[in-house]
Amino acid sequence: MKYFVETTDFHLKNSVVTLGKFDGLHIGHQMLIDHVVELKKKGYQSVMFTFSLHPYNLFSKEETKLIYTNEEKLLKLREEGLDVLIAYPFTTKTASLEPEEFIKEVLVKQCDAKAIIVGNDFCFGKNRRGNVEMLKKYADEFGYEVHAYEKVEYEDGVVSATRIREEIEKGNMEDVENMLGRPFSVVGEVVHGRQLGRQLGMPTVNIMPSEGKLLPPNGVYASALEIDGKEYVGVTNVGYKPTVGDKNKLGIETYIIDFKGDLYGKILEVKLLHYMRPEQKFVSIEELKDQMHRDMENVLNKTGECY
Questions:
Q1: φ, ψ dihedrals at 50, nearest 5°
Q2: Could you report the per-residue pLDDT of 250-279, keeping only the tens digit for each?
Q3: Radius of gyration, CA atoms only, the chain
Q4: Sheet containing 2-5: which strands, arranged edge to edge?
C-alpha cells in the first residue's frame, strides 16, 4: 500500500476513492472500504483519503483524542487490501479550499477519481459547504460516479466515532468492540519499567501510549496479545501504578499469561477486552502481589481461558 502523508504532492490514475476522517475505522468505515475494494476488481486503484490531523484539533482549543493514531490506523489498513492511503495535511490553507475547488483540483486532477464512496452525511471544503448533493451535481461534468451509503446502526443508535469515544471513556469495552468490529487496542514499543513484576514472579511488559491517543478509564483490563502468531491472554493496567509507579507517567503495563521471552524494543498491540476493576493503591508489595494473582484468575474466568 502506498502512503502519502502530510503532502499535497501526489498524482493517481483511474481511482475509486473513499473520503472521511475515519477515526476508529469502525464498522461503518469498514463498509465503505469493502465497497472500494470491491470496485477495485473493475481495474480501479483503490484509495482512502483522510487527514493527518483530526479536523476538530485545528479549530478547537481542546484537543480531540484519537481512537487510533495515524500509526495505528496505518497498521490496520495494511490488512484491508487498499492500494493507496492519503493522509492529507489539514491546515488553515487546505481547510479554506472551497468545495468546488476540492472536487476539481484534488479529486479529479490529482486522484483521477472515477468513483467516490462516502457516507450520506459526508461534508467537505470551506465551512463544510460541500456535501453529497454537490458531489453528484458535478459527477457528469467530471466523469465520476457517487456512491453514498446510510449510517450503520448498533443497538438502536448510529455507529460514529463520537459515540465510540463516549463508550471508551466509560470503559464499556464490549460495546466498543462491537462498534469497531475488533477489540480496542493500544500499539507501542515495549520499554523498560522498574521490573518489579519480575521480582514478584509475574514479569510484565510496558508500553507508552502515543500523545493524543484516547484511553479508557484507569484500571485493570482483561486483554489479548498476538506474539509470533500465537494469541495470549493478558492482565493489563492502564494508569500510573500508584503503589510503585510515577504518578506523572501514564502507561500501559501487561502481565502476559503463559508467555516467557524478551519483548524489549518490539512493537506490541494490546487489545483491551473487558474492564475488570479500578486502579488502586496497596499498602504493601505483598498485598499488590496477592491482588495480581486474583486479577489473573478473574481475567481467565472472564475470557473463558484455563490456567
A1: -135, -165
A2: 889 999 999 988 899 999 999 999 999 998
A3: 22
A4: 2-5, 84-88, 45-51, 15-19, 113-119, 145-149
User: Is residue 222 within 8 Å of residue 174, measured between CB atoms?
Assistant: no
The pLDDT tens digits of the residues spanning 167-217 come to 999 999 999 999 999 999 999 999 876 655 565 557 889 998 888 899 999
CB atoms < 10 A from the CB of 3, how many? 13
Residue 300, C-beta contacts closer than 8 angstroms, at least 6 positions apart: 233, 257, 306, 307
CB 112 within 8 A of CB 14: yes
Centroid of chain to Cα 251: 18
Give strand pairing partners of 253.
206, 237
Q: What is residue 164's three-state secondary structure?
A: helix
Please tell me which residue in 72, 177, 253, 269 is annotated as part of the active site: 253
DSSP labels, 182-217? S-EEEEEEEE----HHHHTT--EEEE-PPTTB----
Residue 307: predicted pLDDT: 40
Count Cβ neighbours within 10 Å for each residue of 73-100 and write b for 16 or more, e otherwise.
beebbeebebbbbbbbebeeebbebebe
- What count of Cα atoms within 13 Å lies in the side-chain half-sphere of residue 248? 0
User: Which residues, including other chains, have CB under 8 Å from residue 18's CB and lie 6 or more apart?
Assistant: 32, 33, 35, 36, 47, 48, 49, 116, 117, 118
Q: How far is CA 122 from the centre of its chain?
A: 20
Is 253 annotated as catalytic? yes
| 287 compared with 116, residue with greater pLDDT | 116
Four-point Cα dihedral 67, 73, 76, 79, nearest 10: 150
